[in-house]
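Protocol step 4 of 6: structure prediction from sequence.
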Amino acid sequence: MTINKLNAKEFVDEWVAAWNAHDLDRILAHYTNDFEITTPMIKVAMDIDTGTLKGKENIREYWAAALQKMPDLHFELVDTTESIGSIAIYYHSVLGKMAIEVMFFNAENKVYKVLAHYN
């Protein structure tokens, strides 16, 4: 499946806006119920060696805690790249870090897997 440029741009704009609004339901609407995320932030915050969480409800708890801990959270988009069935979002993240999130999409254009990278 290919995400066309218009849809990729719309997706990323909405994704950034949802995070900047701190609207957890709106954020989670982009993902499948069984999605998986791997990020060093999970390893640090939750002491999970793999840095991986699976399932929307588990990730909801993690993100809810993160949003509460960082009330000034604000993402600033730098660029987006895309491939077959995936996109990479490059943005200014939290704690002065730059982030790249690679998101993999199912046929319904919902994210089922995320790999997050930070400097």
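Step 5 (inspection) to follow. The radius of gyration is 13 Å.
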